[in-house]
Structures are given as C-alpha cells and as structure tokens.
Amino acid sequence: MPQPARPEHKPRSESENALDRDALVARYRRNRERSRLLFDLLIDEDAHYIQPIPLRHPFVFYEGHVPAFSFNTLVRKALGGPSLDPALEDLFARGIDPPTDGVANGAERATAARNRAIWPERAAVRAFAEAADDRVIEALANADIDRPGHALLHRAEAVFVILEHELMHQETLLYMLHRAPHASKRAPAGYAPRVEGPIPRMRWIDIPAGRARPGVDRGAVEYAWDNEAPAHAEDVPGFAIESGNVTNASYMEFVLAGGYREPRFWRPADWQWVQREGMRHPPFWERGARDWMWRGLFGAIPLPPSWPVYVSHAEAEAYARWREARLPTEAEFHRAAYGTPGGAQRPFPWGEAAPDPAWHGVFDFASWDPEPAGCHPAGRSAWGVDDLVGNGWEWTSTPFAPFPGFRAQATYPEYSADFFDGDHFVMKGASPATARELLRPSFRNWFRGHYPYMYATFRCARSRA
Fold first, then answer.
1. Quick check: 233 pLDDT over 70?
2. How far apart are CA 244 and CA 242, in angstroms?
3. Domain boundaries, position 305
4. Rounded to the nearest 5 degrees, what angle is found at the Cα of 447, between the Cα atoms of 446 and 448?
5. CA torsion angle 10 16 17 23 (round to 10)
6. Are 436 and 363 in contact (CB under 8 A)?
7. Residue from 389, 364, 400 nearest 167 by CA
8. How does residue 157 score in pLDDT terms, banded at 50, 70 and 90?
9. What pTM did the predictor assign?
10. Which CATH number does the domain housing residue 315 bear?
11. Helix (H, G, I), strand (E, B) or coil at 300
12. Which of 52, 72, 410, 464 has the smallest count of CB within 10 Å of its CB?
C-alpha cells in the first residue's frame, strides 16, 4: 500500500526522524495476519464462542480485544483521537488473568450457546477490528507518534506496546486453541509433528560464580517493558545446571515412581491442589487404551519421549525435589544462558547472530509443537547448555517481583504491577509460539504456580558446596 503523504505542519524530533514508519506498519500488518491465521484454525462460527479454558473469555473476545487494545492505547489515549464505538472499546478493553487454583467445574464454564448471547456476532467484531486497524495504521503512517518527554509517546512507547501486546496474545491464543476440542479445529496443510529423535543424555554443567545482568535500561534499547528495567548486576554463586530440559521420558520415571501420590515432594499448597484436581500426570499427557498419548494441537499422538515435558511450576518443583535438586533462579538461568567464561554477556545464548529457528531453536511459530530436546546444537550457550531459548518457556524458582528501582510505565501501568503478589513465578527463554522480537535477554514471562496450560518446561539445578 502506498504510504500516505505526511503532514508538514508539525516539527519532528530527531528520534522520530529515525523511525522507520514503513517497517512499523509492516510489523503491525504482519501481526494482524498471524492472528487471523490462528483464528482461522477454528472450523466455524460457533467454535469462536467456545471457552476451552475456564475463566478465560471465548475466542471471539480476543478477536476484538487485540485491535481494541491497539486502538485504545495508541489512537485514543496517546494521540487523543476520537472514539470508534465506545461500547465495544470498553467491552474489549482488557483480558483477565487465570485464577490461582486449578480448573473450574463444568457448571462455572459458560456454554458456547450462552456466549453467543453475551458476546457480539463475529461480523460486528470483525467490522470493529477492521475500523480499529485502519485508524492504527493511519496513525503509524502519519501521526506524531514520537514525542520526547510525552508520558505515552516518548520514544514511540505506545507503538511498541501495541506491537508486543499482540505478539504475546498470539501465544495465549495458541495454548487456548490447544485446549479446544479437536473437532472444532482444522490442521494447516502439510502439518506433521517432528516426533522422532534420540532422548538426549543429560549432563550436569558447572557454572562458576560470576555476575548476571538480567535487567536493561529502557532508553538503551528499542523497547522494553517496565519489569525488565532497570539495568543492574547480581552476584551469582557457583552452581550446576542440567544440559537440557527434562523430557517426557525423564518425567515418566517420576510419574511411574508414584510422584503424584507422594506428598513429601510437594509444597503443602501444591499437594492440596494435586489432590483437589485428582492429578496423576501432566495435563498435556493422556492415558490411551494401551499407551500414553500427548494431547496435540490437532489430535492425540503417541507421547514423544524426547520432547520437553510441559508442566506447571508446582509439578516442576516436585520433580526437582524428587531428583534431590531444585529449579534455577532467574539470575542463574540468565548466567547459564547469556554469560560467558570470560565474563561478557551475549545477546543470545549462541552469540551475536540474529535468531534463526532453522538453527538456534524452536520459536517464532516455526513449529506448531515442541521438537526433540537438544536438536538445535547451534543454539547452545557458551557453557554448552541446550535449548535455553525455544521449545518451551523455562520455570525458575524466582517469584515475579520488581527489580530495584522499578517504575511502572505510563502506557500500561498495570501490566507488571498487578502481578507482584508472590503468587507468580518468572519464566525465561521462549516457546515454539514466542515471536523472535521477544527473545531479548531481559524479557520476563510469568504465571501462577498452578496454571497448567502454557508451553512451559524446566531443567534442574543444584547449588555447589
């Protein structure tokens, strides 16, 4: 699409002159197209109103929420533009966080038929989304979107907020789709999960004492969320970490050993959760007539033993305790992933090269599924640790909390601060559905310890005597 002429009546800052508006528009359009492809995996209109995860809205909400958030944040709040549809802007304003504990029962889950009565028809949602997209694209192409000193537009902050917000929602959409009935979805052409691969032999890798630098100064990078800042260093005592993620095969040993029946491996609140939910294995596993199965996105498949296991934080901790080990801290993960024997910090575990899922790991929607652990040796860290970015977010033992000197960002003040509650744990790395723009060392993901749906794995660590 030709770029519209730019108004000449406003002076432009030096930083705005550096903005590549064509690239911003292209990023926004690329985000919207990927989101559309995800929604198109649902086979019919009714499927958009199902609610596969209790206390998450149905899919139709997210079809309206993402463009509404972009429009509200950039056009309405930052630029002071006129409203499109106040009722829909309010309806789709913000998603919700999953509950602390477990899965609601069927009586608490709204039916698709009831959701058809509660939520607008998709034609209205699509019309609203298209109008919002047009206004956002017009703003990206022409508006004064970079204003030094402006609370919402300094260094074009509102622009990067909306771009990364959609990237994160695409991952949420995919794990919601994962829980939707298989009959409600269609597999893309040529879909074939990569299930064959040797089970990697795990090694303990010693990481000497050193410094981790998990934060970043927001002004030093194109964009960072408030919880990523400020830059600081943490002294990390020497420790040992496993060379790879815990696989389905390794976790099966814990299951068969009765790990879900033995309270001594679980914290008291976690054991109560296991008992209340009747858990006997990871939620991504299913017991078939003869063999174990993996609940795939488009159908059940024989459990791939070499894939990383996807579990909640509580399950990861219990397994580590069974192994007489523990989860790594956020700082330990950071040192194992980005540190080097010489003391320098790399931008990626493998070095300076831009992320490439063909070589460095399973991320950026290169695969609908995980792949065999350790199958991207080019992505190893300087210490020889595999899969630190890609194939599954990795749980740490660190509760999600602000770094010293934290300041909430004006564009989205509740983004982080609402979750500094001691009930959420930091995850690092990336999953198959994590966009490459989020692979920076400072990026932090987080979830509650009992939340079972996201693509999260782990590896064990041990303190050195």
1. yes
2. 5
3. 204-463
4. 140
5. -120
6. yes
7. 364
8. very high
9. 0.92
10. 3.90.1580.10
11. strand
12. 464
